[in-house]
Amino acid sequence: MAEVIVEEKGKGGKKKAKKHPPRMDMTPMVDLMCLLITFFMLTTAFNKSKVMEIILPEKLQNDKPQDAPRISASRTLNVILGPNNKLYWYPGAVKPEDFNNLPPLMETDYSAEGVRKLLLERNKALAKKIDDFNKDVISGKIQISQDSLRGAISQLKKVDDTGPIVLVKAYKEANYGNFVDILDEMNICGIARYTFMKIAWYEVKMVETAAGIQSTAKPATN
Amino acid sequence: MPKIKLPTKSPHIDMTPMVDTFAVILTFLLLTAQMRQTEPANVDMPFSISEKPTPDFNMMTFLLSTDGKVFMNFDNGGDTLTKFRPKILVEIGKRYGIEFTEEQQREFEKYPSSIGVPMDKMKEFLDAKNMKDRIPLQTGIPIDSADNQLAMWILYARQVNPNIQACIKGDSKTAFETVEKVLDILQDKNVNRFNLITSLEAARINLEEIQQ
């Protein structure tokens, strides 16, 4: 059985009901919330990182010998990522008879004045076309959906046959940031044809001559 | 001159609207929160103009630290039932003759960030009770040709989840040699399309300036 305990009140107690103020003090609550908000702000990953796509040519199978694709030397531009954030380039190709007298490398950098200017000068026609197209889309002259915009631009790149063919190579002391930077420049300048490939031994030698490193490069035996 | 009577007011300010706003912000943050993962190595991502967001699912991420270590991470898939992570672990365990218990698989499933543990240390890594014991075990996945465990991870990840895409997350100071090795291994396994994870940066070209 439940017992009801009646609390006895002191008879002589003062019966002054305490006047509660009608408000509660919210300050501690505000403090706490401030703290929580700060915590969540700092731990939340707000800006999602972006990705840059790159597609590399398939590796050649050893059992299936294949001819190297023929590209015109006059359009070829070799860009070599060098040590200490340096960037080297030379136009055209090095022929086997030049091996004893290698052409000098031009030095440039990753800034807008450096490699971007170089690439844009060579890619003027295509870059202008893409730029005009983008302007027409923005001004409403061409009605195109956002999805087909990329396709249209890649079609522009596909039919282009004036821009340079850029071959990106990396010296062994280059870093990953250089690699991303140069690929980014390709996107900025709208280069239609570019690829990344292994550096050749004579190019190693050229870089080492240009950078003043004791050269160790030797022709490969095969 | 009459005295100006200042109204006597209590010094309290009504905090209720402030509390309300804070509560709204807090709820919003709680609901949208995507906890920042603590990666085993700190990387400063390079910048690019690419605006394509990182996919949420079906990706394997290779984290390349400045000291040349390789870490790997993949997601569980878009559906909670797919559970790609434990499946990949079981498959690669079979390859190295290691059998993982239920608990170890569950631990692997919910491990939030990249893992760079050689297979022979994997059991010890998953059994460890706190994060501190795990740090020294993260020595990077072996990538040399004698014991190419990264290639095996890629192989089984693609076997379990055929739609998986390769993402590379590197520090801008990471030596290109490491990156090249990883790209090489990926290409050996017939992955030719890569996503390089970068931070966004605006760039503008000025054609008129060039044409002068």
- Count of beta strands of chain B: 6
Number of helices of chain B: 8
How far apart, in Å, are the first and last alpha carbons of chain B? 79 Å
The N- and C-terminal alpha carbons of chain A lie at a distance of: 102 Å
Strand order in space, largest sheet of chain A: 4-3-2-5-6
Percentage of helical residues of chain A?
25-40%
Task: Give the H and E element order of chain A.
Answer: HEEEEHHHEHEH
Largest sheet of chain B: 5 strands, mixed
Taking all Cα atoms into account, the compactness measure Rg of chain A is: 34 Å
From the 3D coordinates, which CATH architecture of the domain at 71-122 and 164-222 in chain A would you assign?
2-Layer Sandwich
| SS summary, helix count of chain A | 6
How many DSSP-defined strands of chain A?
6
> In terms of quaternary structure, what is this?
heterodimer
Mean pLDDT of chain B: 83
Shape of chain B: elongated
Sheet with most strands: strand arrangement of chain B: 1-6-5-3-4
**What class do helices, strands and sheet pairing of chain A give?**
alpha/beta
The chain pair with the largest interface is:
A-B, 55 and 62 residues
The residue ranges of chain A in which pLDDT falls below 50 over 5 or more consecutive positions are none
Number of domains of chain B: 1
Q: Give the amount of beta strand of chain A, in percent.
A: 5-15%
Question: How are the elements arranged and paired?
Answer:
The complex is a heterodimer of chains A (222) and B (212).
Chain A: H1 27-43, E1 50-55, E2 76-81, E3 87-91, E4 106-108, H2 112-122, H3 124-139, H4 146-159, E5 165-170, H5 176-189, E6 193-197, H6 201-211
Parallel strand pairs in A: 2-5, 5-6
Antiparallel strand pairs in A: 2-3, 3-4
Helix pairs in contact in A: 2-5
Chain B: H1 16-32, E1 47-48, E2 52-53, E3 59-64, E4 70-74, H2 84-95, H3 102-110, H4 122-127, H5 131-134, H6 149-160, E5 165-170, H7 176-188, E6 193-200, H8 207-211
Parallel strand pairs in B: 1-6, 3-5, 5-6
Antiparallel strand pairs in B: 3-4
